[in-house]
Give the backbone structure.
Amino acid sequence: MLVIGNWKMNGSTSMGKSLVQGLVDGLPATDPTTDGVTVVVCPPAPYIGAVAGWIGDGQIAVGGQTCHGQESGAHTGDVAPEMLADCGATYVIVGHSERRHDHGETDRQVQDQAKAAIRAGLTPIICVGETKQQREAGEADAVVTQQLQASVPDGVTASQIIIAYEPVWAIGTGLTASTDDIAAMHQVIAQVMATLTADGSVPSLLYGGSVKPGNAAEIFAVEHVNGGLIGGASLKAEDFLGIIRAAM
Ligand code: PEP
């Protein structure tokens, strides 16, 4: 199981330090997984090096929230995956719906970012998910299938990537997809991914969208759900620990 916290554009040095301390104190001291659960936190880019330092010897891994496709160059404000790795990250989220919405990121860009992340030795967490309108129009399966086909780099093996299914209407809204809908979509994603990986196997599949300590166990029990991508509830140590315990 994987439990990945996306802090989004939240935090500060003092908040990050006390959150990380709360997680380190609350987790059993096993390295690098906790009772079979891999825990990752994705702070805003300026804090990645500091968070990696506070975590210390690898009980929790660190990830970025996006990256550029190039290794360096004239791209003001962007961050190369090699820079994330240099600061201690081992994962990076790509194609989050907020990046797609706020910055107009396309599937093609997401694919470049995922490729670049692999080049830099990071594991990309490739996000896909339909909007409310698309679900209501009965298009959810087709939309997610198309996003996967266009965003997943050619020739990858299942162990090189992670897929996060995040229905856009469930992110930060308190609304969660039903376990039946999650099961149905993860089944579709597993089938599509088996056709897209070089080895025909399926990568870890996460669900994201208003996961909380109270609903995490039920969601993690769904077939083809290998963990969660957690936004709001990853900002409080107690809540995030509750979700991690539900995955154990
Ligand atoms: C997210 O940002 O990826 C997310 C799932 O957010 P939340 O858990 O707050 O819905």
